[in-house]
């Protein structure tokens, strides 16, 4: 039996080649992902201890930063050879063009004691005293900064100041390289720039002969509560864990998409086996006729699947190596640090081979069982080309129930308040489509085929008849496309809706001309003051908020606050001034406050100016019960919480000042602060929606493979069908169908199949997105379902064009045989 | 069968001149047709007979523009098929030639009616309703039009194929063993229809067959042997056809024994 299996595999190798491409692609994705994350992990391990080469013990701050005085106390402990405070934070560098250097910049305090210094210096030296700075080599080079030259560095604490560049360091691939510049200052300068009150940790080098554990013990006593003392080993372990955790999450995201691709590949494989075994009915029956048991032919089919899966997986692993190199290139283009040379490890190879083979066998299981249920008498008939039956009643009933349940889950997810229901609904609806496919898909093919028939006549009529003659086959082919296209369009619709929601919310809340935002951190403390001091500017309002005593206290500007309110219950909003607050209704009711009530916030007494209602709850995760909110003026907020920084300031020109002059005034101030960014409203929207677009592009690229695999499935089904219709196509050519029209016929068949898959996929995607957006709309009314028609049409046209391309090879195959020979095929 | 009066068709419908067809190269070379000169008069029923492997199918394929000869010319009416590219040749088949093969003539996904009008549909032509009705009635399929080939008997399928060949009113119908797969009753039915198409419609039919009874329906029989026309009968009867075939076999046997004898002499 094994020999016969090998024979038939060899005979059908060409037929199976295309379908195994689905597995090759899926496995390549998995292998590539594993290789890239492996090599990134290896890099992370290698780099984990970079900044702790000489650290024996570390004292870490729990919540409150460690005061500089503690560093001195630690240094005095017996057995400590050196101790220095270290902190990392954000800051910015003003580039040679006078604008902030792009990217999120990391600032670190660099030890001055050589016993603790752990940086790779590429030029010059590390900073020894205040006023000196080192940068990462690439930034210094790109900006053309020379050693000894002044470099402007600024942070949250105030305007940028010049520091002398004394050296450059290599931090590539470490936790301190996140794509932007690296800035190294001595401890005191770092504290000053970041505005921090103390260090994040104290690095300690032990004196010779001192045990790390004993020293850690002693230091715990000195450091006291609010700190954690770690030995070197603990520090390294934590660093590795940290680095690897992020990578594992990243890898998991990629593997999820690879999983989707594999599922689609499974669909394609299952369909291929169903077709090939149907075409082989006569041969199977002949084997049964001469005495093979059904078990034997079934096991032979599974063995064939296993061999095919294994071969495809091997190719997939090889292709994955290529893919990994590509991925590494893309990632490093995106500034994600990837150490070069992804490695192929034994476990990766094993996992990929098992996965590819397993999925192939699992996908072939059902078709093999059905395909070997052949009566020996079938050897004497010509059954594979007959028009086959559709789905049974049981299948259709289940399909109807499952899709009804799915649609219900999508519809009620928002009402019930369970976002999980959206996912469940999507999956159920998909299975409903799969089960109902043998009825639904041919019906849609006929429907979409009708206008094409009018246009192309008999060519299209033949294509429609060919497409629908085997309902299960066309349905399986189309539904494989539904997965990828459904997910892509769900994300496209979701992203489109979220973008419109963001724009609406910006329109609703932000009514000013200019916005100043912090890059990767809060706004510098002095910024609002500097802006307010400019005579060209009128309103300057820094958004800040803080929770105290179960109440969210928000800074507000009397001229702007109206936009965020939907109504006034009592009192007058214009009475908001220093010493008064706007209390939101829920809070006022809960605490029994009325207009004029004295209220105590963070130890100061205010008077309620008005009880108001908010336009809508803020989309941020609620830190307090809904509506437990007061608005106070900026000055009062600053007095209450002087260290609380905002991320956004609204700025408007003073009366009678032109936009250009006002902008120039803002720019003059902003130029001194490399950690902030000036934007008008449109740019602000673009910044917020840009992230959504980027995520969408990322997701679409990853899901693209699933769509490609499904399209391979379309080509595959078509070319298998062409093989089985060789004689028919010979008849068609004999009675006068030209080569061009034969090609057109196959193209129409492919396009109709893909179109149905795309339409069902887009519909499913819209359904899922609608469920999700209904859910989000309950949190914020700005978010409603918006259909980005252009992009959906784009998805659709890509599917159609790809299907056209997919029909080229099968057509070539159909036309390769001379008519006479085709007519003679048994 | 009360069909329209026969259109007047005269002259030669199909003619081959110096037709050669070779398969393979070198030692594997087979000469299937070895310089065939033959003409088929319009408005007549021609049968082609000969031993298995004598080149009957090959001749038919070359005449019908399904295969291209190695040398020689084929004329359908006034058209030299060698001068046509694949596209024109296909259109010629579509518009001017009808086919009936031994089996698997039909598209399984189409109904009988759709199969019948297929050449017209491909040509984007609307079937003439009265003509279609006549053809369908003639082949006796009026109540089977909505069925797919899988639901029809072999004889019915052949009649569908015949209707398809007739519906375009081609200049010539080529049939390769159209009754080869049928029992004698269904076969007789198909042959009677071919005969009537010639008599009442003035169709030209060229039919390959192994069956002397079938050949007797024809006006003329051309005998092939070793890729060459060797004999002809007009107004044949089954007995005369049998006799002629037996004569051919005898010649072949004599050839064979002569070769064997030569070999034996050489061996000595
Ligand atoms: N595609 C081909 N390749 C090689 N040789 C071929 C091919 N087709 C036919 N032949 C050879 O050409 C010769 C004539 O074949 P053809 O099919 O025309 O015979 P036939 O008279 O129709 O026989 P039959 O009565 O068995 O159908 C035979 O010797 C055959 O082996
Ligand atoms: Mg033959």
TrEMBL record, chain A:
Matching PANTHER family: ABC TRANSPORTER PERMEASE YTRF, MEMBRANE COMPONENT OF TRANSPORTER-RELATED
The record's annotation in Pfam families points to: FtsX (PF02687), MacB_PCD (PF12704)
**Superkingdom:** Bacteria
Q: Which UniProt keywords apply?
A: Cell membrane, Membrane, Transmembrane, Transmembrane helix
Recorded protein name is Putative ABC transport system permease protein
Q: Which GO terms describe its molecular function?
A: transmembrane transporter activity
Q: Which family does it belong to?
A: Belongs to the ABC-4 integral membrane protein family.
How does the UniProt record describe the way this protein sits in the membrane? Answer: Multi-pass membrane protein
Q: Does the keyword Membrane apply?
A: yes
Q: Name one GO cellular component term.
A: plasma membrane
Q: Where is the MacB-like periplasmic core domain?
A: 17-220
Where is this chain's protein located in or outside the cell? Cell membrane
Q: For the ABC3 transporter permease C-terminal domain, which residue ranges apply?
A: 256-373, 702-817
Transmembrane portions of the chain: 12-36, 250-277, 297-324, 344-366, 396-414, 420-445, 478-498, 695-723, 744-777, 789-809
Automatic annotation (TrEMBL), chain B:
Q: Which keywords fit this entry according to its UniProt record?
A: ATP-binding, Nucleotide-binding, Transport
* SUPFAM superfamilies given in the database record: P-loop containing nucleoside triphosphate hydrolases
Q: Please indicate if the UniProt record lists Nucleotide-binding as a keyword.
A: yes
Domain ABC transporter, which positions?
14-251
InterPro entries named among the record's database cross-references: AAA+_ATPase, ABC_transporter-like_ATP-bd, ABC_transporter-like_CS, ABC_transpr_LolD-like, MacB-like_ATP-bd, P-loop_NTPase
Q: Which GO terms describe its cellular component?
A: membrane protein complex; plasma membrane
Entries under CDD domains matching the protein = ABC_MJ0796_LolCDE_FtsE (cd03255)
Tell me a Gene Ontology molecular-function term this record carries.
ATP hydrolysis activity
> Has UniProt tagged this entry with the keyword Transport?
yes
Q: Where are the transmembrane segments?
A: none
A Pfam family cross-referenced in the UniProt record is ABC_tran
Q: Which named protein is this?
A: Putative ABC transport system ATP-binding protein
Source organism of this protein record? Micromonospora halophytica
């Amino acid at each position: 039996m094994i020999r016969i299996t090998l024979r038939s595999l060899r005979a059908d190798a060409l037929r199976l080649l295309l379908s195994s491409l689905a597995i090759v692609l899926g496995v390549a994705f998995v292998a590539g992902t594993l290789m890239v994350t492996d090599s990134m992990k290896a890099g992370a391990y290698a780099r984990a201890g970079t900044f702790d080469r000489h650290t024996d013990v570390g004292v870490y701050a729990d919540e409150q930063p460690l005061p500089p005085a503690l560093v001195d106390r630690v240094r005095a402990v017996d057995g400590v050879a050196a101790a220095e405070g270290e902190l990392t934070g954000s800051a910015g560098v003003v580039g040679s063009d006078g604008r902030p250097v792009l990217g999120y910049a990391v600032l670190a305090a660099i030890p001055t004691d050589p016993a603790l210094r752990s940086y790779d210096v590429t030029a010059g030296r590390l900073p020894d005293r205040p006023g000196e700075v080192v940068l990462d080599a690439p930034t210094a080079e790109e900006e053309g900064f020379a050693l000894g030259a002044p470099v402007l560095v600024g942070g949250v604490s105030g305007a940028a100041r010049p520091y002398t560049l004394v050296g450059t360091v290599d931090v590539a691939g470490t936790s301190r390289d996140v794509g932007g510049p690296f800035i190294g200052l001595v401890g005191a300068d770092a504290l000053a720039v970041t505005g921090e009150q103390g260090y994040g940790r104290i690095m300690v080098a032990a004196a010779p002969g001192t045990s790390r554990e004993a020293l850690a013990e002693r230091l715990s006593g000195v450091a006291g509560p609010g700190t954690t003392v770690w030995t070197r080993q603990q520090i390294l372990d934590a660093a590795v864990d940290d680095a690897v955790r992020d990578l594992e999450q990243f890898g998991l995201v990629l593997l999820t998409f690879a999983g989707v691709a594999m599922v689609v590949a499974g669909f394609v494989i299952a369909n291929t086996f169903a077709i090939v075994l149907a075409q082989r009915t006569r041969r199977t029956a002949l084997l049964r006729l001469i005495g093979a048991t059904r078990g034997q032919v079934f096991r032979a089919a599974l063995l064939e699947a296993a061999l095919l899966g294994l071969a495809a997986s091997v190719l997939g692993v090889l292709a994955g190596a290529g893919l990994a190199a590509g991925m590494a290139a893309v990632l490093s283009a995106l500034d994600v640090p990837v150490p070069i040379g992804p490695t192929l490890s034994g476990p990766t190879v094993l996992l990929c081979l098992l996965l590819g083979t397993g999925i192939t066998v699992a996908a072939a299981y059902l078709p093999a069982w059905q395909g070997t249920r052949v009566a020996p008498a079938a050897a004497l008939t010509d059954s594979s080309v007959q028009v086959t039956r559709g789905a049974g009643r049981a299948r259709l009933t289940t399909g109807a129930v499952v899709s009804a349940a799915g649609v219900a889950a999508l519809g009620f997810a928002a009402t019930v308040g369970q976002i999980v229901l959206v996912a469940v609904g999507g999956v159920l609806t998909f299975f409903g489509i799969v089960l109902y496919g043998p009825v639904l898909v041919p019906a849609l093919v006929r429907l979409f085929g009708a206008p094409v028939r009018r246009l192309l006549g008999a060519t299209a009529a033949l294509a429609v008849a060919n497409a629908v003659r085997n309902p299960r086959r066309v349905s399986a082919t189309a539904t494989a496309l539904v997965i990828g296209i459904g997910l892509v369009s769900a994300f496209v619709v979701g992203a489109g809706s979220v973008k419109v929601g963001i724009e609406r919310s910006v329109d609703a809340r932000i009514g000013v001309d200019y916005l100043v935002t912090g890059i990767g951190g809060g706004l510098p403390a002095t910024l609002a003051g500097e802006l307010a001091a400019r005579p060209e500017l009128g309103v300057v309002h820094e958004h800040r908020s803080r929770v105290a005593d179960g109440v969210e206290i928000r800074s507000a500007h009397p001229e702007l606050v109206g936009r965020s309110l939907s109504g006034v219950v009592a009192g007058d909003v214009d009475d908001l001034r220093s010493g008064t607050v706007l209390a939101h209704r829920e809070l006022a009711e809960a605490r029994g406050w009325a207009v004029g009530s004295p209220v105590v916030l963070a130890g100061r007494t205010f008077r309620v100016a008005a009880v108001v209602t908010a336009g809508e709850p803020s989309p941020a995760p609620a830190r307090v019960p809904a509506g437990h909110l007061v608005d106070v003026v900026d000055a009062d907020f600053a007095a209450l919480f002087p260290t609380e920084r905002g991320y956004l300031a609204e700025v408007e020109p003073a009366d009678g000042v032109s936009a250009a002059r006002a902008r120039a005034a803002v720019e003059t101030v902003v130029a001194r602060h490399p950690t902030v960014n000036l934007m008008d409203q449109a740019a602000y929207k673009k910044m917020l929606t840009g992230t959504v677009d980027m995520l969408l592009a990322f997701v679409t690229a990853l899901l693209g493979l699933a769509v490609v695999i499904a399209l391979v499935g379309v080509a595959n089904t078509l070319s298998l069908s062409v093989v089985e219709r060789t004689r028919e196509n010979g008849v068609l050519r004999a009675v006068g169908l030209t080569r061009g029209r034969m090609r057109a016929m196959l193209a129409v068949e492919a396009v109709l199949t893909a179109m149905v898959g795309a339409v069902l996929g887009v519909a499913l995607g819209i359904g899922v997105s609608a469920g999700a957006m209904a859910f989000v709309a309950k949190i914020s009314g700005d978010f409603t379902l918006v259909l980005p028609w252009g992009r959906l049409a784009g998805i659709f046209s890509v599917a159609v064009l790809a299907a056209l391309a997919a029909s080229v090879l099968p057509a070539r195959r159909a036309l390769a045989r001379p008519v006479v020979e085709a007519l003679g095929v048994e | 069968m009360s069909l329209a009066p026969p259109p007047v068709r005269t002259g030669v419908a199909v003619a081959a001149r110096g037709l050669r067809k070779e398969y393979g190269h070198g030692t594997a070379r087979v000469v299937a047709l070895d310089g065939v000169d033959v003409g088929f008069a319009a408005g007549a029923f021609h049968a082609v007979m000969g031993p298995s492997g004598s080149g009957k199918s090959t001749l038919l394929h070359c005449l019908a523009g399904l295969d291209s000869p190695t040398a020689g010319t084929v004329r359908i009416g006034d058209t030299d098929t060698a001068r046509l590219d694949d596209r024109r040749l296909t259109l010629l088949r579509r518009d001017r030639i009808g086919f009936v093969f031994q089996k698997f003539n039909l598209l399984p996904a189409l109904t009988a009616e759709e199969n019948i009008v297929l050449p017209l549909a491909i040509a984007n032509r609307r079937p003439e309703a009265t003509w279609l009705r006549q053809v369908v009635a003639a082949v006796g399929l009026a109540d089977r039009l909505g069925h797919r080939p899988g639901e029809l008997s072999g004889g019915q399928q052949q009649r569908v194929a015949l209707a398809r060949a007739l519906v375009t009113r081609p200049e010539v119908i080529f049939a390769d063993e159209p009754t080869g797969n049928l029992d004698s009753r269904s076969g007789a039915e198909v042959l009677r229809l071919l005969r009537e198409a010639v008599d009442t419609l003035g169709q030209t039919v060229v039919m390959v067959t192994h069956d002397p009874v079938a050949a007797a329906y024809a006006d003329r029989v051309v005998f092939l042997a070793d890729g060459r026309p060797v004999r002809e009968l007009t107004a044949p009867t089954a007995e005369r056809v049998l006799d002629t075939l037996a004569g051919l076999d005898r010649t072949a046997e004599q050839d064979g024994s002569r070769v064997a004898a030569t070999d034996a002499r050489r061996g000595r």
